């Protein structure tokens, strides 16, 4: 059975790919700057004899053909970029790039897909169809590398019938995976609001139009967009995260700048909320004598797992690691540009457990101490290979 062969190869190659993960972790690159990472991936595919193309400057798209290659096409995706975080782990493979770290596990994702590629290529005479390998740049930063790859035709020629992606889960024990059908992760839009008033002496507020007071009212009022317009059963977050205005105690400034985020899991409500935010900001600021500039930078769409594909993936995971090791993923208000793919074709975005409490490996993603139990790499590369070889389009 091919599943057993995949397991055996994943076990055999795991040390090699743990070393690859160490290399990637030690040499992180920020979004859209993954030049050396891209070259590393290209070199590995070349060594394996897997043809590839370059898209969106640093994206690498490989193709592995099995028997009857036109019978089906399955896409497997991994992201490659790192975060602007100073690593605090004291490990031999600690980041060598000051202020840059693979704190979201994209080094693990890339490693698992490279491992799956090696396995699938070695077993290409034992499965049918074509596997499209998508090594993607820029997941951590708008507009999202997925959107750029789609614009450049990554879902065409050949067109995959579906797509799978995995993500490390530091809250899930190593050896486990988790899945969820339907709404999985939120959309993410960035809010930039400038409130313009009339500055002056703080002792003469009657001669000013105070943008700090206006901004304070607006921050509170914006919460009504969610609390009084959204169905309480529909997950939504609106957070103002930056308030900048004024430099000293006795001067009312001319303007205040606010930044924030808006997140939703329903695309219709998402864009209705944008209009409510615009109206609230404009009307309130004008009513208090100020002017406003508002930018809603539309970011990633929500991630939606196709129900049928998710169930198939769960069944495959159960066969691969056992029912006791397959769990339900919680809904998350974090965002992922995998949502761009899942809007175009059926997608399944699942979680790979990397936590090991006994070893003290519990730090969350986007933290300077994030790390994984590296036995997860054998499971991740094997699962991606198993999905690629066995799912029917």
The biggest sheet amounts to:
8 strands, mixed
* The CATH homologous superfamily of the largest domain: Zn peptidases
The best one-word shape is: elongated
Give the beta-strand count: 16
The total of helices stands at 9
Fraction in beta strands: 15-25%
Please state the structural category. Answer: alpha/beta
Q: What's the architecture of the largest domain, going by CATH?
A: 3-Layer(aba) Sandwich
Widest sheet: strand ordering = 1-2-4-3-5-16-6-15
Q: What does the model show?
A:
The chain is of the alpha/beta class and 393 residues long. The protein has two domains: 273 residues, Aminopeptidase (3-Layer(aba) Sandwich); 109 residues, Alpha-Beta Plaits (2-Layer Sandwich). It has nine helices and 16 strands. The strands form four sheets. An eight-stranded mixed β-sheet has the order 1-2-4-3-5-16-6-15, sandwiched between helices. Strands 10-12-8-13 form a four-stranded antiparallel β-sheet, covered by helices on one side. Strands 7-14 form a two-stranded antiparallel sheet. Helix 2 packs parallel to helix 3, helix 5 packs antiparallel against helix 6 and helix 7 crosses helix 9. The chain is elongated. The mean pLDDT is 97.
